[in-house]
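Interim report to the steering committee. The following record documents the input for Molybdopterin synthase sulfur carrier subunit (80 residues).
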Amino acid sequence: MAITILFLGPLRDLATSDSIAVDAPLDWAGLIAAVPDAVASELRGERVNIACAGRVLADKTTLAAVDGDEIALLPPVSGG
């Protein structure tokens, strides 16, 4: 089985894809290595959050995804 990484909003444009599948398990270092460099650069900043298996992580470096999990990369939201 695999883990699905979803690229949302402007991160989708940077990744040039809606999603990718990677082998499980996946931690923070593995996530950074799995995504395109432009996305990895954004992930290292404070403005992008990560949800794993439906839960937004308070500390994204604690990512511990397992088989079947879906990781959503959440860019900052704008609007009024």
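Residues 37-44 form the longest helix (8 residues). The committee is asked to note this result when reviewing the revised timeline.
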